[in-house]
Hints:
Number of strands: 0
Structural class: mainly alpha
Largest sheet: none
Low-confidence stretches: none
Number of helices: 2
Amino acid sequence: MPTPRLDHLTRVSLAVRVTTHLLGLGERRDERGDVPGWVMITVMTVGLVAGLQLFIGPELESMLRSALGKVTN
């Protein structure tokens, strides 16, 4: 005979499983059509690169000019 606490947890677990099944939360989604997610990742990446460009842009430009100068000479 289960204890009252275990019986309560069993009922709660069953209720959660039934609710997720009825709401469709347990189903796997096909991520291939997740365009808004990919757009958000792309926009965030562009924002991150633009933000870094403010801080390290002049140093990167200097390094690139120096490297290209060594190759052409």
